[in-house]
Amino acid sequence: MSSNRRSVYRCSDCGTDYPKWTGRCESCGAWNTLAEEIVSRRPGKPAASKGVGNAPDAVRLGDIRPEGVARIKTSLGEMDFVLGGGIVPGSLTLVGGEPGIGKSTILLQCVARIEANGVRTLYASGEESVDQVGLRAARLAEQTDAIHVLPEVRIDTITARAAALGAKVVVVDSIQTTYTDELEGAPGNVGQVRECAGRLMRFAKETGTAVILVGHVTRGGGIAGPKTLEHIVDTVLYFEGDASNDFRILRAVKNRFGSVDEVGIFEMTSSGLKPVANPSAAFLSGRDESSAGSAVTALMEGTRPVLVEIQALAAKAGFATPQRVATGLDHKRLAVLLAVLERRAGISFHDLDVFLNVTGGVRLIETASDLGVAAALVSSVNDVPCPHDAVFVGELGLGGEVRPVPGTERRLAEAERMGFRTAYVSARATYQTSMHTVSVRHVTELYDRFAA
Ligand code: TYD
Ligand code: MG
């Protein structure tokens, strides 16, 4: 440990410093706002900001040629697509997701392919030993022999090794295991995560090395560590999926070099992650078209339409308080839709347990799937199957009115491609399609159509 280090615990709300951690800032009274920070690394040396020194010169934008920055292709099509065409040199990317979802797997596949393209990489693993990484690599259908694995958690050693190796892409798995001994806190605490990410950011910008961080997701769904982590990185990718099936969705939620909300869809196989070429077909496979309570809707996953099946089961409640269990749909949205059906269409759910499931582990984020959810619920209550070739696209208002949604035409085109013949859409939607369409103004019309 160096004797010249000095760290303080600083309140993120008011900026007051403390020599020791406390739960509550005595100055402003805020709870849990103190995080460790390094104050000065070299006391006695004049601050660099006093003179110009070797600070960079101002650059005329016209002298920069953006096309000169070639992206590094991972050659994993869906990954390159989500990134906006590949990895930008000198960028910092955060890949978040729950434990076991496949973060290490996909990044190992990426470095294997980047190496195969002749670009030097380094895979720094603080989570697993070299043997464990090797065992994983052996399962993958990739050329993994050329990958350099570094079992290291000290941040400065990782960057030094990366520089010595001349790596153009460095994966740090994970940011929660890295640390610097200039801070007292344990790896994974807010101060350590922030400092290590900051050092990797400087390393990336100064050397032009692309750095990819793995970040764990907390129970609340955020990436563990400070929110500032998402602010300092250039790109944030989330890896999502359901433990009960093999589909994984890689989603860009922030991208300084591409569009956000693009997704890549993968399937976890016995030899690593494989892109899913036809997601609609994958999500609809195994559908029983003749059973009541099933409805198909078309989502927009990024710019691509995808069909998914919604299954609803309304059953006589065993207890006084009926259960509401939803997988893939926000509980509050389900409550809203049940209330709309109850008040506007006169369907009583008060003595029914309601279970809702979206196949493939997909989450319904858009309200465009409301009509599909309503159709599945009505179909289950009436015990009458929805038409087997029908797709439902529309948002439900609180008055029970069915509203148009963006991208209706593209959603219907995907449904048609998948062999659907009938589309239930808002009467106010504008689109062109050769499908048979049923214009729905109000949710009661849905009920009338599926009456027993
Ligand atoms: P992993 O990449 O270790 O997840 P994370 O780094 O996000 O914690 O993924 C581990 C899971 O993936 C584990 O349950 C085993 C499974 N898996 C496969 O099914 N096939 C494979 O080829 C590999 C490497 C892992
Ligand atoms: Mg891992």
What does this 3D model show about the protein?
The protein is α/β, with parallel strands linked by helices. The chain folds into 3 domains: 6-45; 71-277, 3-Layer(aba) Sandwich (Rossmann fold), CATH 3.40.50; 282-450, Ribosomal Protein S5, domain 2 (2-Layer Sandwich). The chain is 26% helix and 25% strand. It has 11 helices and 21 strands. It has helices at residues 77-83, 103-116, 130-139, 155-165, 190-207, 228-232, 279-284, 331-345, 370-382, 408-417, 443-449; strands at residues 7-11, 17-18, 34-38, 92-97, 121-125, 149-150, 169-173, 210-216, 235-241, 247-255, 263-269, 272-275, 294-301, 304-316, 324-327, 352-358, 390-393, 395-396, 402-403, 422-426, 436-440. A 9-stranded mixed beta sheet has the order 6-5-7-8-4-9-10-11-12, sandwiched between helices. The chain has a 7-stranded mixed beta sheet with strand order 15-16-14-13-17-20-21. A hairpin with a 2-residue loop joins strand 13 (294-301) and strand 14. Helix 4 packs parallel to helix 5 and helix 8 crosses helix 9. The longest helix is centred in the middle third of the chain and has 18 residues, at 190-207. The model has no long low-confidence stretch (mean pLDDT 89). The structure holds thymidine-5'-diphosphate and magnesium ion. The site of thymidine-5'-diphosphate (TYD) has 15 residues, from helix 2 and helix 3.
